[in-house]
Design a protein that fits this description.
It is a single chain. This protein is α/β, with parallel strands linked by helices. Helix content is 43%, strand content 12%. It is built from 17 helices and 15 strands. Strands 4-10-9-8-7-5-6 form a seven-stranded mixed β-sheet, with helices on both faces. Strands 11-12-15-14 form a four-stranded antiparallel β-sheet, covered by helices on one side. A two-stranded antiparallel sheet has the order 1-2. Strand 1 and strand 2 form a beta hairpin. The longest helix has 27 residues. The chain is globular. The N and C termini lie far apart (57 Å).
């Protein structure tokens, strides 16, 4: 691969900086991947008709910034860390839901970065061999399962899902269930059939960032209701129900993303009673509901009210890559959802759905949860212990009883600086502004503990605490805004 350098004698920048800048740009776009050997100082100088010292200064500039390394006798090479630097340079500086969603892929590609930014099961704990066995058992049915399937979802899978739902307190028949391509697909279909552009939808504040992005893409207006330790604040909820004429209320009552909050039984009943009074349907996202560490998982809200529209999936319980979710709704809404499904993606992947049905039928999901729940519980305990041990005064956080994440509040309004500093030190988290309808808040973060081993948690939180403490020393201006989440531990 040839190295193309164009010098501009009229440029006010020194020649060596022009060379360094162009090499850096070519590394950034992948033209010079890690391990590439740059031309020797002599060859570069001859090619550009410049002094060797100028080329040497350019290489020294790149080495000082960590893009290349030079070894006597071997030459100058693009370093492996340049990949991480390149990917980090592509991340957004604005913490909107869409930007954070787009940044998840680049962050995952950085092997040296430890991420506490994604609420997902640890892929190293996935029951790959067991699920592979469930797929291999379908060899004789493979041809049939590779054809078109009923758009409501594989019948055998819906039978097995009735047992999964029964454990959440929901009694349904297979025909009451619609299988979707993940929970997000289900949420999208529900909002499509229940609203029209310009309508308002009640959300919790903070809430799942994917839902905020979905609402905005569909031309809907999210109306936030802040949370307290019990759940949505009822005084604000009633005010919104009176004044905004919402079409739907979205809630994550079980170990909410991003706070980890588990809505109390009393508050669940209050929410159901009040929304019934105003005729507003509840859309329940129960994706984390079974992931309870300290006590049995509470029943779903749908268990108390058949008018609740219920959405869940296998993403957090099992493996996100399956892309299998499911929706239970009142019959008239289910008919609309099925019609919308026909206009959407027709059907899922029959082979994967039947494999999951076999997996569930053999009791593999229960066995998997028995194996991994103690591991996730230990990681939750480790992150809370590390927070108590390391965090400076004024930092607050939630203490979740389940799920994969917790919510942290800083005593100052400069999360952007902490986020950027953490990335440079090899640690990722998710800025809290991405989980709010108003992204101007700059003092919250979501930490996810599910993918980090217990033995590394103390060092990760210790590093984060040091960065928060250092930034606090540089920025003495404390925020006096009313907290969006209150009170915290």
């Amino acid at each position: 691969m040839s190295l193309s350098i164009q010098l501009n004698r009229g440029d006010s920048r020194p020649i060596y900086l022009q060379i360094a800048s162009q090499i850096r740009n070519q590394i950034s776009v992948g033209r010079l991947p890690p391990g590439t050997r740059l031309p020797s100082v002599r060859a570069m100088a001859q090619n550009l008709s410049i002094n060797r010292l100028t080329v040497h200064n350019a290489y020294s500039e790149l080495q000082a910034d960590g893009w290349v390394e030079s070894t006597v006798g071997r030459g100058t090479y693009v370093v492996e860390q340049a990949q991480a630097m390149t990917l980090l340079s592509t991340l957004s500086s604005e913490f909107s839901p869409i930007n954070v969603l787009q940044d998840l892929a680049p962050i995952k590609q950085i092997p040296t970065l430890r991420s506490m930014g994604t609420a997902e099961p640890d892929p190293s704990l996935a029951p790959v061999d067991e699920f592979w066995g469930a797929m291999m058992a379908l060899r004789r049915e493979a041809a049939t399962l590779m054809s078109y399937e009923i758009y409501q979802g594989d019948a055998k899978l819906r039978i097995e899902l009735t047992h999964v739902l029964a454990e959440r307190g929901i009694a349904v028949m297979p025909d009451d269930i619609m299988v979707t391509s993940g929970a997000m697909h289900g949420l999208s279909l529900v909002t499509q059939v229940m609203t029209k552009p310009g309508d308002t939808v009640i959300i919790e504040e903070p809430t799942y960032l994917g839902l905020i992005h979905l609402l905005k893409m569909q031309g809907l207006r999210p109306i936030p209701v802040p949370l307290d330790t019990e759940g949505p604040r009822m005084d604000v909820l009633e005010s919104v129900l009176k004044s905004e004429s919402p079409r739907l209320m979205y809630t994550v009552p079980g170990f909410q993303n991003p706070t980890g909050l588990n809505m109390s039984p009393a508050r669940r009943q209050e929410v159901l009673k009040m929304t019934r009074r105003y005729g507003v349907p509840v859309l329940e996202d129960d994706i984390y509901g079974v992931l309870a560490y300290d006590a049995p998982a509470p029943p779903a809200m749908r268990a108390s009210d058949d008018n609740v529209i219920y959405v869940s999936s296998m993403s957090k319980m099992l493996m996100p890559g399956l892309r299998i979710g499911y929706v239970v709704a009142p019959p008239d809404i289910t008919r609309k959802l099925l019609a919308a499904r026909l206009a959407n993606d027709l059907y899922g992947v029959p082979f994967v759905q039947r494999a999951l049905a076999n997996f569930l039928h053999m009791g593999r999901l229960k066995a998997h949860l028995r194996r991994v729940m103690p591991i996730y519980s230990a990681r939750r305990d480790a992150v809370l212990s590390a927070l108590r041990r390391h965090m400076p005064a004024g930092v607050k956080w939630t203490e979740p009883e389940g799920g994969f994440c917790l919510w942290v509040e800083l005593p100052y309004n400069n999360m952007m600086a902490v986020y950027q500093s953490a990335l440079k030190h090899g640690l990722a988290f998710t800025p809290g502004a991405a989980f709010m309808s108003d992204t101007s808040s700059n003092r919250y973060m979501r930490l996810c503990f599910s993918t980090q081993p217990v033995e590394e948690m103390d060092a990760l939180i210790g590093l984060l605490a040091d960065l928060i403490r250092a930034q606090g020393s540089r920025d003495q201006t404390m925020t006096h805004d009313a907290p969006i989440w209150a009170p915290m531990t």
